[in-house]
Design a protein that fits this description.
Oligomer: single chain
Shape: globular
Largest sheet: none
Mean pLDDT: 86
Order of helices and strands: HHHHHHH
GO molecular function, one term: malate transmembrane transporter activity
Membrane topology: Multi-pass membrane protein
Subcellular location: Plastid, Chloroplast inner membrane
Family: Belongs to the SLC13A/DASS transporter (TC 2.A.47) family. DIT1 subfamily.
Keywords: Membrane, Plastid, Plastid inner membrane, Transmembrane, Transmembrane helix
Amino acid sequence: MAGYLNKYGLISWFSQTVVKFVGGLGLSWQLSFGILVLLYFYSHYFFASGAAHIGAMFTAFLSVASALGTPPYLGAMVLAFLSNLMGGLTHYGIGSAPVFYGANYVPLAQWWGYGFLISIVNIIIWLGVGGVWWKFIGLW
């Protein structure tokens, strides 16, 4: 899927659109990167596979982040961490999720609701607390 999205120009179009939109806001790189992070993370709702999402969007979003002034190492690390964390958003977001959903452990509405709430906690911990720590130890 990622190959065809790229082949038919969707990824480059999307990247350019995001650069124009976020770059046109005139925000600092930190705020711009925050918007990109949220777009990257929550766009996972539209992908049936983590691998497809990462393959289609990771490089594009990293390019956009770098173009907007985000330190490249920080951008790559944050997107990599989020690529793992986004699997819990939906009942189809990661390989093991359909097994749990299919066994009726958690109803669909609860899964999506809890997934969203936990995603907020994850983002606060990983980017808030983690971001301060990464700055302290010199990662960016």
